[in-house]
Structure formats: structure tokens, C-alpha cells
Amino acid sequence: MLKPKTFYLIDGSSYIFRAFFGVRQQLSTSKGFPTNALYGFINMLQKVIREEKPDYLVVAFDSPEKTFRHKIFPDYKANRDAPPEELSKQFPYFEPLVEAYGLSSIRRPGFEADDIIGTLAIKGGQEGLDVVIVSGDKDMMQLISPNVHMLDTMKNKKFMDKEVLEKFGVPPDKVIEVMGLMGDSSDNIPGVTGVGPKTAAELIQKFGSIESLYKRIEEVEKKKVKEKLERDKESAFMSRELVSIDTEMDLEFNSDLMKPGKVDSSKLKQMFEKFEFVSFLEGMQGEVKKSIEVDRSNYKTILTEKALNDLIKSLVKNRSFAFDVETTNKRPVWARMVGISFSFEDGNSYYIPLAHRYLGVPDQLDLKTVCEKLKTIFEDKSIKKCGHNIKYDLIVLANEGIALDGLDFDTMIASYLLNPSSRGHGLDALSMEYFGHKNITYKEMVGSGNKEIGFDEVEVGPATEYAAEDSDMTWRLKGKLQPKLIDSTLKLYKEIELPLLEVLAEIELNGIYINRKHLVELSSKIDKQLLILEKDIYILADEEFNINSPKQLSVILFEKLKPPVVKKTKTGYSTDVSVLEQLAVE
């Protein structure tokens, strides 16, 4: 039997916001134009195309106009703030990006992306396609069926019947019933005040639907729950209507239009250049990541004073090297050095074992003597040092009396700056990504669980291969990553990230001083100011109450003083910071 073709429906609007808030670093061009949402969105799009290889694909976007849901409930989504200006500036470029990738995008006045996806999911299912909704929005779970499932690419998680049951306590076709009762604060959908997810699920498990629940309302055992249901009956039905995705829009599945087409390379190149997306431009140029051949037999173990002196001469002559320390503990402050590796040429690396201890261990150079000899080059600012997560090495060296200077490159930080939305900035992940090479893992060296040993118990031979490989890969990665850092990112890297490493390392080593006297004085001053404010509030309210109680505060504000209501929650009037700030202005 032939495997059905796949139809991917991407919740574009949701991913724009998730990309904006998910890419923690506020990326921007050298001219200051924000690009983090665009960057994250492109990453998501490329990942779906590359990994999922969809036969058909549509990206759905929300309409900027009010939808039919606003006619049902004017306060629908009224609690949402306007998008940040940095995000709004990026809005005009998402649909052109999708088009440049040769993909279909759909936006319909008066409808949300959810409705477009819901309608096309049904149509795709009718065509015998395997439908995949690419979204992290829980509302979409109502659409899941035997031939429709959800994929959250940011969490790399699939959702089918089982996952829906775990989340909502009911199967997909009952999700709208549960959400109708519990509401959805993110969309300002009220539901039944005081009925949360657990109670809502229990009620639908017992009664099956909101209609059946109200027909058999006398069977609700808990008096308070029954009272809440009776009070908010109209809200329950309205809320269910609001959360229900429209699957009957006037849309058709068009295989010709919805099949991924030819990429407009010229248009994409222009956009990538405009947004200074160097890594994406390199990808377009067909940069082939060939697997490198690593001959670990080229890695050398330094066991004699002559070999050490020869290595030091080479390091001084080269004026630049990568290094990595091996220790007794993953926490650098408590770690003691077991060995140290160096590399200054692709494929060649050196490991100096210093404190390995096991039966039959070879004679090793004295730790103190080696550190004294290495101290000169480590503290020479003119000799450039490179590492991966070099803050760790910096702290370990400090414990051995070495003040590292000439810090030039950290491959972990460079990787993050180049691809902040990625979660794979470890050395093993980067070696695989850039060189197609699988490093020896730390776990392979020391084991795990009850069988885990310290690195000082690892035999010198395998330890050399592991440690020297780390320095070799770090050196190679520097050559790969350094040219990718464009002007604006390079400035951030050199002026903030690298200097900050040394500050953070010093804090971890020494802690920080606190002016206790000043803090006590400040605390006393603030306490006095708060007492004055408290008295002023009681005068305005004409009574004393618990200011820290949102419930009591909402009663005083909105039932007694009666300013305009900004927004409501399931439990009553909202008194969060944004509401109070707005009232203060008015």
C-alpha cells in the first residue's frame, strides 16, 4: 500500500510571535533594523522543508481586520497589547519571504489562521492526505484526527490523540467543550468563572458536552460548581463558539498551487542581504558541509619535559592556539586539572596528562611544574587563545594560579550569536553540524550512573584521543565561525561577550561585595515611603483594606471608585501592572 502524500499547514502568525519572543537576542542589521522574528521564522520554514519534505504546504496568516468572533464577543482578544514596534516593522516581509521560497500563503479578511488551517485540514483529509498542522497553539488540538496531527517544531514534539488526552483529559473532538467551560485567558475568552481545566475536564468526561451538562445540571454534585455553571451559562456557550475553529470556509485544496514550487533565489538573496543574514546567504551559495576524516593517531601525548618544551616553542611561534582543560569536576570552581590539550593546526593536537590515577598509569609531568611553564604563554596577551565555553577553562586556570590573557575566541558564544534560535551549541553538536564528524563523548569516557568514574581514572591513551579531539575541533571551528561574524555581530562579540566572560569568571571565583549598610538604609527609606503611600490609598478609598490582595483591590477600584474597566479575568476585574499603569495615565 502506497504511503499517503503529506500536506503541511503552518500557523504563520503564531510562529512569527514565537520567533520574536523565542530568539532571546534582539538581532538587528548594522542600520538598526530588527530581524529576530524574521530570522526565527526562516529557520522554522527551512527546518520543515528540509526535515519533513512535504508534498504540499500552505502558510496561513491572521487577518489584521476584526474577525467574526469579535461580532460574537466585542472583547475577544481585548486583553492583548499592541505588538512591539520592533516586531511590527518586520510584519511586511513574512509573506514575501514565503512567496520567495516558492510556497503558498493564505490570508482571508475576517478569519484567523486557525480557520484557514481547520478548513484545509478537512479538505486535505478528504483528499486522502496525511495532514500535519505545524503549530504550538493548543486550540489546534481540536482538529486532530486519525489523519491529522500536530507538530511543534520549536519543541520538536508531535501531538496525536494520546497527547491531547494527556493535556485536556478528553479526546480531540471534546476539546472545545472543555475550553468552553475553562475559557482562554490568552484570547480573553471568559468561560465559566472559577471553573479551571481540571473541573472542566471532569465535567465533560461525565456529561460529554455543554448541552448535556446543562440539561442534567442537577446531577452536578458540587454546589459551588453548580452555582458557577448556572450563573455563567450564556458565557459557556458563547466561549465554546469562540474557541471553535471554522472548518467550512470557502477554500479549496489546490494541488498545483499548494505544491512547493521553485525557489526565487534572486529575491531570497536580496532579502537575506537586506537583513544581513550571512549564514542563510552561505546556505544559498551551496556551501557543502563535507564530512572530515579525523585521524586520531596524529594526536600526541606529552609525557616528557623535552616534548613539553617543544610544544611550548610551537605555541609561542604560532602566536595562536586552541586549548581545553580536563578536570575532576564539571563545576569549575571545585574542579582540579587532570590534563590539558592544545591545537594550532587542523588534525594535529597534543594532550598533557597531569593527574590521572589508576593502576599502571604512566609517569606524568608534575602539575605545578607544567603550570609554571605554561603560565608565561597563557598570560601573554599577544598570544591569542581560543576555547569552547572558555569561561570554564579560565576559572580552572585561575585555581592553578594562571591569569589567562589574550582571550580571542569562544566557539560556543560565536555559535550562539550566529544562530541564537538553535539549542545545539555544544562542541559535539557543532562538530557534527559543520564537519559531519562525531566526537568521542564525555559519557563514552567516564560512563554513567553507578558505573561512572572520574576523568582522572580514564586511561591516558583514550583520554588523549578525547581531549586532543576537543582542541582540534575547537581550532577548526574557529576557522569556520570567525569569518561568519559580520560587523554588527563582531562588535557585540568583541566589545560585550568576550570581556563579560572574564567578569563572570571573576564573580564565580570570588563572589561580589555588597554594601550592607547602604541596602539597610535604602530598605528603611522605601518602607517609610510605602507607609505614606498606604495612608494616601486608605484616604482615597475611605477605608482600610489589604492592598496586596488583588480581589480586595479590584472591589475598591472597580466597585467603589468605578474607573473604566480595562480588562477582566476569570475571577473578576484585572488589577495587573498594565491595567494600573493605564488607569494612572487616564
UniProtKB/TrEMBL annotation:
Looking up CDD domains in the UniProt record yields: DNA_polA_I_Ecoli_like_exo (cd06139), H3TH_53EXO (cd09898), PIN_53EXO (cd09859)
GO BP term (any one): DNA replication, Okazaki fragment processing
The alphabetical list of record keywords is: DNA-binding, Exonuclease, Hydrolase, Nuclease
InterPro entries with a match to the protein in the record: 3'-5'_exonuclease_dom, 5-3_exonucl_a-hlix_arch_N, 5-3_exonuclease, 5-3_exonuclease_C_sf, DNA-dir_DNA_pol_A_palm_dom, DNA/RNA_pol_sf, DNA_polI_H3TH, FEN
**Presence of the UniProt keyword Lipoprotein in the record:** no
Q: Which Gene3D superfamilies match?
A: 5' to 3' exonuclease, C-terminal subdomain (1.10.150.20), 5'-nuclease (3.40.50.1010), Ribonuclease H-like superfamily/Ribonuclease H (3.30.420.10), Taq DNA Polymerase, Chain T, domain 4 (1.20.1060.10)
- Protein name, entry field: 5'-3' exonuclease domain-containing protein
Q: Whose protein is this, by species? A: marine metagenome
